[in-house]
Amino acid sequence: MAASAEDRRRRRTRTAAAIGALVALVAVLATVPLLTSDYQLSFMVNVMSYLVLTIAWALFSGTTRLVSLATSAFFGIGMYTVAMSIKILPLYASFALAIVVGAAVALVVGVLTLRLSGMFFVIFSFGLSEMIRELMVWWEINQTHTMGRYVYVPFDTTMIYEHLLGLAVVVFLVGWLLRRSRLGIALLVIGEDETVARQVGINVPFTKVAIFIVSAMFMTLTGALMAPRFSFINPNFAFNPLVSFVVVIMALLGGLQKLWAPVLGVIPLIILSERLQTQFPFWYSVLLGLVFMVIVYFLPRGVTGLLEDIWKALGRPLALPRGFTGPLLDAWAWLSRPIFLPRGLAGIIEERWLKIMPRANEKR
User: Fold this and answer.
1) Ranges 219-223, 311-315, 354-358, most confident
2) Which of 118, 130, 131, 207 is the most buried (most CB within 10 A)?
3) H helical segments located in the chain
4) What is the pLDDT of residues 263-277, one digit of tens each?
């Protein structure tokens, strides 16, 4: 009982420290618009938007182990819903409508497709984005006879950043609470083995659809908040499939072990993406694919996995039975050994020459 009470006290202390650190970090980030230039603020908007998308992706894919490429579909739904409704609805009503539309699409897609697994779900999720994009292109050309929408609202970059910061805090808290709930435990069991999850009484379809809808709502709202940033939006821009791949790369680079891990993947890749798009615009996709291959091959557990391995190595005692002088003596003995050349350099040259040149009888 004493040990149990001590463990609970430690957990409460760690939780209070984590909440305090999060509050302090949010307070610092809230001052960004006051201390940065327009370019730096634009950079932070990109960071916050991809941070929300990556954490939202990890809520579903990081627990169920189903790799989703539907991020661009829900991001585009949010952006295009605002672009289509902004002339007839107030801005925040457009945001609410975008969330409803995104949740409805996620419900239909989840019920119909989450029975799939592995590569089949990956292919379908990618096809979903392309299908919605082509449908919107067809609609704009044949029904409205245009190829895009203008978005002019009094919602500047500072307001976009502040709303995205608040959304990042919300999605982080949702993930934190989820991992400590029965639903989070059920998702982890599903990710390990769906058959076992069914045998222990978990409603696998309902659980997967529920977290898929939650993830999609955050992605949709992120797209809706980003819509006022651009003056003109068309289907090819809103439903850009590159968004889905970038989010997956960021999540894998940061790692899926910790909820804060996407931060370690978002910031480096945004910096790298801006460099690549500026200096190598025609090779951007190819170079991004190479980055993805390097991450998968050399960092299968992401940066957080690498940091955990380094931390364990630092905490492990050094195995030096002969002390620090033992390896030094071994190195000195190896360097002090004479070079074994019984016939000298001339003998080595002669042997090589005989191997290269054919014998006299072989010529005949």
Assistant:
1) 219-223
2) 207
3) 2-30, 32-35, 38-64, 71-85, 91-113, 119-139, 157-178, 182-192, 194-199, 204-226, 235-238, 242-254, 262-279, 284-298, 302-315, 325-336, 344-356, 360-363
4) 777 888 888 877 777
Instruction: Give the whole-angstrom CA distance, residue 225 versus residue 46.
Output: 12
Phi, psi (degrees; rounded to nearest 5) at 43? -65, -45
For helices 91-113 and 204-226, the axis angle rounded to 10 degrees is: 150
Which among 210, 240, 270 is the end of a domain? 240
The Cα 132–Cα 277 span in angstroms is 26
CB neighbours of residue 270 within 10 Å: 19
d(CA 215, CA 60): 6
Give the CA angle between residues 142, 145, 149 to the nearest 5°: 115
H or E segment and range at residue 150: strand 149-150
Host domain of residue 222: 14-240
In this structure, is residue 127 part of a structural domain?
Answer: yes
C-alpha 178, offset from chain centre:
18
pLDDT in tens, 29-45: 899 888 888 888 998 99
Residues 342, 233 within the same domain: no
